[in-house]
Amino acid sequence: MTDIDLSAGGKLLVVDLDLTALCGDEYGERWLSERSEKAFEATWQAGNVVMVATARPPMTAFDLVQRMGASACAYHNGGVVDLDSEHSLLQELSDDQSTGNSNILRFGVPVERCIEVCHQLLAQIPNLRIGIEFNDTRYTNFDLTDVWPSQEYQLTDFSDMPSGMAQKIMMFPTNEQRELVRSLVPDDMSLLISEDALWLLMNLKATKRNAMNLACLHFAIPVSDTIAFGDDLIDMDLLEHAGHGVAVANAKPEVKAIADEVCPSNNDDGVAQWIEKHL
């Protein structure tokens, strides 16, 4: 394994948040530890670039991105890519009508197309729990607090949706529904699965891998000088195509199998430990 020297600068670190950089478990609260915060600060002070790549929307990730001193962030798994996190505002990241910032790139799906796909899926699976995420609002046909107790949502039959560019279609299929959902994925969307339960239909370009490539171009860093950290199946493409892929010890077995290296778990500040070792 090639030795990685972060003290020399010039690397791009692409870091997932939940169950990777953040402490916490699958069902409880999650937080950024003081040790991790200091590790990320030391990373960019050494001349490296930190990029967050998260499934979270801006409203729940923005403050964490700022605390980490990240220069870029891929929200919604790459549906919104911010290449200047230091200066971007939460409002312009959350509002798809905000087009003045050329460093914010959007890879969404028109709301009208999302509604069409939702109706097509519900015609085949009437009790499918499904929703559309648009401008940091989740429009769902079910009580979202059954899944995420603290999350706000708007109950809908999708007839009252505003126009614009949605970030994604979100679903929570039962085990019995999963194979049928797979067979109904439209050709113009990709299926991503997060933490086993959350299924996402997104723009084909809305991926963490694409976001990393855009950041490499923006910061003039070759892909060979990227290090990616993750835990979930949704991170596998990113880890496989980064210069060096690191899975945390609590990652899914499939993720650890394709990673170049496994660091300690998220609750042991594994990413911070890896950074400290290579600085």
Rg, nearest Å: 18 Å
Give a count of the beta strands, DSSP E runs of length 2 or more.
Answer: 18
Strand-pairing-aware structural class: alpha/beta
Choose one word for the global shape.
globular
Number of helices: 10
Contiguous uncertain segments of 5+ residues: none
What string gives the helices and strands in order? EHEEHEHEEHEEHEEEEEHEEHEHEHEH
> What fraction of the residues are assigned to beta strands by DSSP?
15-25%
Write the layout of secondary structure elements.
Layout: E1 12-15, H1 17-21, E2 23-24, E3 30-31, H2 34-45, E4 49-53, H3 58-67, E5 72-75, E6 80-82, H4 90-94, E7 104-106, E8 109-110, H5 111-124, E9 130-134, E10 137-140, E11 154-155, E12 165-166, E13 168-171, H6 178-183, E14 189-194, E15 198-203, H7 208-219, E16 226-230, H8 236-241, E17 244-248, H9 253-258, E18 261-263, H10 270-278
Descriptive terms for the model:
18 strands; 10 helices; 6-stranded mixed beta sheet; 279 residues; alpha/beta; 8-stranded mixed beta sheet
Give a description of the structure.
This protein is an alpha/beta fold. 30% of the residues lie in helices and 24% in strands. It has ten helices and 18 strands. It has an eight-stranded mixed β-sheet with strand order 7-6-5-4-1-16-17-18, sandwiched between helices. A hairpin with a 3-residue loop joins strand 14 and strand 15 (198-203).
